[in-house]
Structure formats: structure tokens, C-alpha cells
């Protein structure tokens, strides 16, 4: 006799309670599967769309060394996207379907990639702040309850910390340069600081799905906890760099043992998520064109795989 739904649910709950991992072959509640598909897909799409703002500067890198570094970094992001699409496929959805959902606007990607990159300093700032925020979000996901997602995150986090140091090193080099270069860094940090804080999502009291995700062990920390961690980590780095973070309310609070900081513009985050950020239309148009231009590659690869399988049968 097959186990009852109640027995399956009890075994799932026990696995979560023991902080053990759920694997693709295991029974899981439909809500858990759907939440994971949504989250992993959004994460995969972010890696792929996230190639665009920096890819914009590959052909205009200031030296061969900087070009090689940036090329490698953007390629890493493509790799992250592929690990994550593969992790998502273990939940019974195909990569082709996920890409369709992105192109139809039915799945999202991180709001941060809807901001433009206006100078080469942005390559450094993205490495330092955007990859830095991504690390704060992603390190706890290495312990997420779904096995394939957690294992993908372990590999990704190693590369993300390299990306962050790469960005910081670029900014440090510019800060040791001319007044003009220092001004470029400050201007870039001024533009990216608040959008980086928004990467952690809305405040906890306005984040309706968070509680269930925490109960399932999909999420390990709340949005506000992670945002605080990021601010505390970044302030001393900004001081070492010699840049000013554009927040007049930012100061150490000895009583809390954390930095206090100002409120991000949540109306702006909502607008960007709804598709009205500075670059949403451009990012999606570019992704759509790349998808259409790559159709012949997918067709050729499918035909080749079919022929190879046929020959193997003979
Ligand atoms: Fe990445
Ligand atoms: Fe990265």
C-alpha cells in the first residue's frame, strides 16, 4: 500500500525539522515546489540579465588586463545562470519553459539590473556592492533545504566572493589615481548605493511570502537582517576606500551594535519591479533579441543530438 499523503507530509516535515535536505526524488508539498521554482528561476534569470550592464563595457575596457578580467567575470555569471537552470529543472520544469516565462514577463529578475552603467567605475562598484549584496543573500542559501539549490549556491558563492574582490581592487586602483578618477568612483557609488540596499527586497513587514519560506528552510534570514548585515560589512570597506556612502542617517549605534541607516525609497523599488525602472525595456529587448538570434544554435544542437542518438541505436 502506498504511503498516505499525511505520512508523506510528516516525513517531509521531519526532514525540514532536522535541517536535512530534500532531494528531487523526495515527495514535497506543491507549494514548496512552486516557491522553489519561482525563487531559483528568478535567481537564474538575474545571473543571465546581470551580464548586460557589465557586458556593455567589455569593448571599452581601459586595458587588456581589465578586459580579460571583465570577460571572465561576465562568463562566470553565464555559468551561474546555467547551474541554476539545471537545479530548477530537477523540480520538473524545463529551461525552455523558464526562458519563455521570463520573456513573457511572468517571471522576474533582480531589480538592480534595471539601472544603467554609465562609467567604467560602475564595473568596480557592481563587483563591490552588487556582488557584495548577492553574497550576503546567497551564503545562507548554501544551507537551504533543497539539495540541488544549496549545492549550486556553494559553487556560485566561491566565484561571487572573487567578483567582489575584483570590484574592490578596481575601485582601490582608481582611488589611488587622479582626482577625476576619484570623482568617477564617488559618482558611481552615489548611484548604486540605494539600489544595492533594495536588492534585499521590501522590508520584512511588507514581504508576505518570507514567513513560509523561512518555515520551509528555503530562506534562512529575513530581508531586513540581511540588509543590516550588508550595511555593517560595507561601511568599513567604504572608509578604507575613501568614498562617502550617500546616506546622511548612516551612523554607528553602539547600543544595537549595528549601523543605523536611512530608509530606501520603496516606491522606487516597486516601480522598478513593475517594469518601470530606467532600463527594464532595454534589458528585456536585448534578451529577446539574443534568444531569437540564438534559435539556429538550439535547432542545430537538437538536430545533432537526435542524429547522434539515432547512430548509436544503429
Ligand atoms: Fe553570479
Ligand atoms: Fe557575480
UniProtKB/TrEMBL annotation:
GO terms for MF: phenylacetyl-CoA 1,2-epoxidase activity
SUPFAM superfamilies with a match to the protein in the record: Ferritin-like
Keywords assigned by UniProt, alphabetized: Oxidoreductase
Keyword Hydrolase: no
InterPro entries: Aromatic_CoA_ox/epox, Ferritin-like, Ferritin-like_SF, PaaA, PaaA_PaaC
Class of the enzyme per the UniProt entry, highest EC level: oxidoreductase
E.C. no: 1.14.13.149
UniProt KW DNA damage keyword: no
Name of the protein described by the UniProt record: 1,2-phenylacetyl-CoA epoxidase subunit A
Source taxonomy: Bacteria, Bacillati, Actinomycetota, Actinomycetes, Micromonosporales
Amino acid at each position: 500500500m502506498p504511503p498516505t499523503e499525511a505520512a508523506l507530509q510528516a516525513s517531509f516535515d521531519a526532514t525540514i525539522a532536522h535541517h536535512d535536505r530534500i532531494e528531487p526524488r523526495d515527495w514535497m508539498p506543491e507549494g514548496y515546489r512552486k516557491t522553489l521554482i519561482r525563487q531559483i528561476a528568478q535567481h537564474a534569470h538575474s545571473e543571465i540579465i546581470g551580464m548586460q550592464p557589465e557586458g556593455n563595457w567589455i569593448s571599452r575596457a581601459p586595458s587588456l588586463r581589465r578586459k580579460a578580467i571583465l570577460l571572465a567575470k561576465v562568463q562566470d555569471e553565464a555559468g551561474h545562470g546555467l547551474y541554476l537552470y539545471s537545479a530548477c529543472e530537477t523540480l520538473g520544469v524545463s529551461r525552455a519553459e523558464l526562458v519563455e516565462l521570463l520573456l513573457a514577463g511572468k517571471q522576474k529578475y533582480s531589480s538592480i539590473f534595471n539601472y544603467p552603467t554609465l562609467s567604467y567605475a560602475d564595473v568596480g562598484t557592481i563587483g563591490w556592492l552588487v556582488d557584495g549584496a548577492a553574497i550576503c543573500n546567497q551564503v545562507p542559501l548554501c544551507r537551504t533545504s533543497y539539495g540541488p539549490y544549496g549545492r549550486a549556491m556553494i559553487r556560485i558563492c566561491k566565484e561571487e566572493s572573487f567578483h567582489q574582490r575584483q570590484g574592490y581592487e578596481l575601485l582601490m586602483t582608481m582611488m589611488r589615481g587622479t582626482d577625476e578618477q576619484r570623482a568617477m568612483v564617488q559618482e558611481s557609488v552615489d548611484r548604486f548605493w540605494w539600489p544595492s540596499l533594495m536588492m534585499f527586497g521590501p522590508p520584512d513587514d511588507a514581504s508576505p511570502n518570507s514567513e513560509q519560506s523561512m518555515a520551509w528552510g528555503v530562506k534562512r534570514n529575513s530581508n531586513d537582517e540581511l540588509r543590516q548585515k550588508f550595511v555593517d560589512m560595507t561601511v568599513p570597506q567604504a572608509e578604507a576606500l575613501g568614498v562617502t556612502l550617500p546616506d546622511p542617517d548612516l551612523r554607528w549605534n553602539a547600543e544595537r551594535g549595528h549601523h543605523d541607516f536611512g530608509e530606501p525609497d520603496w516606491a522606487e523599488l516597486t516601480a522598478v519591479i513593475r517594469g518601470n525602472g530606467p532600463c527594464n525595456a532595454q534589458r528585456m529587448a536585448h534578451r529577446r533579441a539574443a534568444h531569437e538570434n540564438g534559435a539556429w544554435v538550439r535547432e542545430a544542437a537538437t538536430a545533432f543530438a537526435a542524429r547522434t542518438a539515432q547512430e548509436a541505436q544503429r
